[in-house]
Write a structure and sequence with these properties.
CATH superfamily of the largest domain: tm_1862 like domain
Distance between the termini: 76 Å
Structural class: alpha/beta
Largest sheet: 5 strands, parallel
CATH class of the largest domain: Alpha Beta
Bound molecules: iron/sulfur cluster
Strand order of the largest sheet: 1-2-3-4-5
Number of domains: 3
């Protein structure tokens, strides 16, 4: 009797192509999804991890899907991320799209088990559940990141606030934290892989810990990481809400040289009436006071900030208050967002400003931002900086300024450099 013949092993499916749009949290999750896809043997896929922060972001997602569909004939297009979560029907209506997957589902191993070449044609085309019912963060430990320089680590997801212009809570659900032990383990693993810098990322970072036993605060997490991972040279915090910064974080800012002297603040406006209409938790004086105190504790501190131009009902005088905030807070890296009404948000139902006014104000804010950045860069000439190399000839200082080198440097290493000059919006290192 002939011995049973095992069917020849299936050739491994070529790994999915990932297109990541939007924030650092999406970048982290794409890394985790790559690992989940590999474990499940999912393949011949193009995964588009979308963003919904502005109408423009959603338009770009659709454009990207069409381009990738042309470039990868025969591959199944899987759309996920915040735009898939908030407007699944928009993507389900696209003939190019094989699957629409929600933000929670995208982090589940079972989802990827259904995305193998032989199964993708069978399952539900739209798998998007109620994100508000999600209570835990799907913590996936990753071993690496798309770059050799800096790794983003998710410590929190979702948001309990409801700023009137913001769609994010509807894409990411309510706030939930990754337990400190898991975060420390993740960072120890990345430091062990040779990463010299880790960036803590989330949606509303300063709410980290509120849902954990004992309600620890972000400052406690930062101090715990720096204590338990002494081999990590640089820890950076991504965007925070200055009004919610806790005393332990202020102390870490003052005493921990491995905590980078660079904070990106979610300020959004510089006028108290507009801040109220945005349902923000701070007033302009709170922001100015926070920046002055952080700089008193850490004189080399540099601030970035998000500011919206042209929020509904914003008068010229109110806008002037946002413009003046750049110098009143001493902001350096400005991210300017022309107001974009997001369907379903309270701000989309307020009286809108004309497009040309929004664009003109955004241009003035950007000009103020460029001037502030140029002043910071000019001050660095002649100074010595520790630079994390992102590529052979380009890196970033602790304050997040770009530095170009004339000779190759080891990628991912932290090198010392004396600044010889400024070239556009970059510093130039000697040698
Ligand atoms: S704090 Fe406000 S702006 Fe930030 S994610 Fe939450 S709702 Fe959106």
């Amino acid at each position: 009797m002939n011995a049973p013949v095992n069917p020849p092993p299936k050739p491994p499916a070529e790994p999915p192509v990932f297109a990541t749009l939007g924030c650092r949290l999406n970048a982290y999750e794409s890394e985790a999804m790559k690992a989940l896809a590999a474990e499940a043997g999912a393949g011949r896929l193009v995964v588009v991890n979308t963003c919904a922060v502005t109408a423009e972001a959603v338009r770009k997602a659709r454009q990207e899907i069409r381009r990738l569909h042309r470039e990868h004939p025969g591959a199944a297009i899987v759309v996920t991320g915040c735009a898939a979560q908030t407007e699944a029907e928009t993507f389900a209506a696209m003939p190019e799209v094989a699957r629409v997957i929600g933000n929670h589902e995208k982090m589940q191993p079972a989802t990827w088990a259904g995305l193998t070449p032989d199964l993708i044609g069978e399952g539900e085309r739209v798998q998007v559940d109620d994100i508000m019912s999600v209570r835990e963060t799907a913590a996936h430990l990753i071993d690496g990141f798309g770059t050799r320089a800096r790794a983003y680590v998710q410590v929190q997801n979702g948001c309990d606030h409801r700023c009137t212009f913001c769609i994010i809570p509807y894409g990411r659900g309510n706030s939930r934290s990754v337990p400190a032990g898991v975060v420390v383990e993740q960072i120890r693993r990345l430091a062990g892989q040779g990463y010299n810098e880790v960036v803590l990322t989330g949606v509303d970072l300063t709410s980290w810990g509120a849902d954990l036993p004992g309600a620890p605060r972000l400052g406690d997490l930062v101090r715990r990481i720096l204590r338990l991972v002494p081999e990590l040279p640089r820890l950076r915090i991504s965007s925070i809400d200055s009004i919610e910064v806790d005393p332990a974080l202020m102390e870490a800012i003052a005493t921990e040289p491995r905590l980078m002297p660079h904070l990106h603040l979610s300020l959004q406006a510089g006028d108290d009436m507009i801040l109220k209409r945005m349902k923000r938790r701070h007033l302009r004086d709170d922001a100015i006071r926070f920046c002055a105190e952080a700089r008193r504790l850490r004189p080399d501190m540099v601030f970035g900030a998000d500011i919206i131009a042209g929020f509904p009902t914003e008068s010229e005088a109110m806008f002037e208050n946002s413009l003046k905030l750049v110098s009143d807070c001493g902001l350096t890296w400005l991210h300017v967002f022309p107001f974009s009404a997001r369907k379903g948000t309270p701000a989309s139902r307020m009286p809108q400003l004309p497009g040309p006014v929004i664009r003109e104000r955004a241009a003035r804010l950007r000009a103020a931002g460029h001037a502030a950045a140029a002043a910071h860069l000019a001050e660095q000439v002649g100074r010595r900086h520790r630079v994390l190399m992102e590529s052979a000839r380009m890196g970033r200082t602790e304050q997040f300024a770009e530095v170009v080198f004339g000779t190759d440097q080891p990628v991912g290493a932290v090198v010392e450099a004396v600044i010889a000059g400024v070239e556009g919006e970059r510093l130039v290192a000697t040698g």
